[in-house]
Design a protein that fits this description.
single chain; alpha+beta; 6-stranded antiparallel β-sheet; two-stranded antiparallel sheet; 8 helices; globular
């Protein structure tokens, strides 16, 4: 089963009660998961399966179906079921709806998050930073080039998972947005220190270029060993004001090449119309094309 596709009634975006269980044959029918979660995403906690270590289940609490905000509980599912299997996206194996809970089944990534990898190993050298940046952008390119493009809206080290030391995948679509020809995103959502300036303006919409700024922040996280703006602001209010005005992470640390700084200049362009796409960066950026 190369992808999970679902037929859903027009009522299915209004209530989990109308969803029917849809699982890949790869998931054991008698699945059992651990009692204690080993991770947590934007919308729920993540558990290992006891009887098949290839899979994890994300448990999302859902509101009473009569609640007017219930559609938000299905955001991640509605994104995941539009995706085919892709080498840079954590695989999705289906879902099981319960009365007040939704179970999402996904692949287990052996080495955990990029954030944890950096915490354990410190700042990455530029060769590994380049390798991971290319793979992150490949995932972003896939999302942005779908028929109805998807803005991830929360790209950061915590939402990048490592299969091994040389392969990674994007995860956690709990705040993602599917963009049609007629709509852009407007929500004040995502991790503030990784968000693009335009996402802080309540009067303007934004598009997939916001993810490129977040990619730049994630590359900063890899190269510096710290989160962007970690010691820049006294509080979140100050941070929102500063980033909203276009303040960039401080990239003036030692052993940072000119090509890497130029890469950041592109990602941290305040005007999103002047920011490159993921495809532009993959095809043309000197830092990414550089051979060690």
């Amino acid at each position: 089963m190369s992808a999970v596709h679902h037929e859903m009634t027009s009522e299915s975006t209004d209530s989990t009660m109308s969803l029917e269980s849809t699982l890949s044959d790869e998931v054991p029918k008698n699945y059992q998961f651990e009692d204690v979660p080993f991770g947590e995403g934007a919308q729920g906690k993540v558990y290992r399966l006891k009887n098949d270590e290839r899979f994890v289940v994300k448990k999302i609490s859902v509101n009473n179906p009569k609640d007017a905000t219930k559609h938000k509980d299905l955001r991640e599912l509605n994104v995941l079921r539009t995706l085919d299997r892709h080498e840079r996206i954590v695989p999705f194996y289906g879902y099981v709806p319960l009365e007040f809970e939704l179970l999402l089944f996904m692949g287990f990534m052996e080495m955990g998050s990029l954030k944890q990898y950096i915490r354990n190993n410190g700042a990455l050298d530029e060769a590994r930073t380049r390798l991971y940046t290319i793979q992150i952008l490949e995932g972003v390119s896939y999302l942005h080039n779908l028929k109805d493009p998807i803005i991830h809206r929360d790209i950061k080290g915590e939402n990048v998972l490592l299969e091994d030391e040389y392969h990674l995948r994007l995860t956690d679509f709990g705040v993602s947005k599917v963009i049609s020809d007629l709509t852009n995103a407007r929500s004040d959502i995502g991790t503030f220190s990784y968000r693009a300036p335009e996402t802080f303006d309540p009067y303007k919409s934004y598009d997939f270029k916001a993810d490129i700024w977040s990619v730049g922040c994630t590359v900063f996280e890899m190269a510096s060993g710290t989160a962007p703006f970690e010691s820049t602001f006294k509080n979140q209010v100050e941070a929102v004001a500063g980033i909203g005005e276009g303040l960039r992470p401080d990239i003036e640390f030692n052993k940072c090449s000119c090509n890497l700084k130029k890469f950041w200049d592109k990602c941290f362009e305040k005007d999103p119309s002047q920011r490159p796409t993921a495809d532009d960066l993959l095809a043309n950026d000197d830092f990414l094309k550089q051979v060690e």
